[in-house]
# Entry
Amino acid sequence: MTTEVGIDTFTLHRGHSPLLISIPHVGTAIPADQRYRYTERAQDVEDTDWFLDRLYAFAADLGATFIVPRFSRYLIDLNRSSDNAPMYPGRNNTELCPTRHFSGDVLYRDGLAPDAVEVERRVAEYWQPYHDALHDELARLRQAHGHAVLFDAHSIKSELPWLFDGQLPHMSVGTANGASCAPSLSDAVMRVFAAQSDFSHVLDGRFKGGHITRHFGNPGEGIHAMQLEMCWRAYMEETPPYEWHDTQAAGVTPLLRTVVESLLRWAP
# Structure
């Protein structure tokens, strides 16, 4: 039995398994009263984790809980700490309320970037409700099953020199260097990737899991979290207008399904 909950800022689909899938960067909306702040280019929200709700739709039939935001990461990044601490100190980072594209170019028109008061408003209106829902759903799943698994799904362009050198593997699994989940869970997922040769993969490489993975992952308390950062080239076109690619998506979906099934089968 499932329940669909519509909130102004996100949609929550409650499933019956221990698995919660968060897709924090799939939203594309920018509120009408904020659009004047952004450059014309920024209003195309090019750094979206495109189509991931469509790509992972099969998981609802397997009993997973989903939480999917409505608004773009350009408004506020749900995978950053509310205190705006950098995810990767010493490297280029985008902020809680990003001011740059992944290319390093500016998002806002001159003088219109959000000030501290506006950032605080966005935290209260958009960031906090999403994180409250994550907290409540993980508590519900842990109570029902004895444990909960949080899978934070992301995607990104394969090459972004402002953020990282070279080309990313197709699949980057992040577990905060093993702190966010039991080793047997990450082992189960990495065995799935190791059993195939079409998609390159790495564990705790350039992306080790963002704030959601690091904050909510608490194996000692029965909550196990991991992030999967998948390159766009696995399922879509990497150049504008960033279109879904039927053949590529059909090729990667069986692998993602096997990953999700491994998360569902796993128990501590």
User: Anything to note?
Assistant: Strands lie at 3-6, 10-14, 19-22, 65-69, 148-156, 171-174, 201-203, 223-231. The chain has a mean pLDDT of 95. The CA atoms of residues 155 and 182 lie 23 Å apart.
